[in-house]
Amino acid sequence: MVSDADGPLLADTGRVVAAPADVALRQESPVGPGGTYLIPNLPPGAYRVLLLDLAGLGLLGSPDLLAAALAKGKQIHLQAGDDLELNLAGASTPP
Q: Which of 38, 54, 69, 92 is 20 to 30 A from 11 (CA-CA)?
């Protein structure tokens, strides 16, 4: 779930990005109703996860800027069969 101090974010207010070290292999999900998102079938490995609000969507077109933003995201490590719920409370595009 993606939320801020006012509660879950509204649908279509950003995208959640999960990327391994090679940001070209990133996967993303739009923020859905109630602040939900789903990124299925991520291969095992280490990822950085970040919410890009609408103002930050331009980062998706620049691998260098996206990598810099993801460096400030949450780091997770997935193993085969993991089903992880990650709350990105208070997250947004880093400055």
A: 69
Average pLDDT for runs of 10 along the chain of length 95: 79 88 92 90 94 83 89 92 82 54
Q: In whole angstroms, what is the distance from residue 69 CA to residue 27 CA?
A: 15
Residue 3 to residue 9: CA distance in whole angstroms? 5
N-to-C CA span, the chain: 22
C-alpha–C-alpha distance, residues 75 and 18, integer Å: 9
pTM value is: 0.83
Which segments within the chain are labelled E, that is strand? 3-4, 7-8, 14-19, 27-30, 45-53, 74-78
Based on the number of CB atoms within 10 Å of its own CB, is 28 exposed (0-12), middle (13-18) or buried (19 or more)?
middle
Q: β-strand 3-4 against 7-8: which pairing, if any?
A: antiparallel
Helix (H, G, I), strand (E, B) or coil at 59: helix
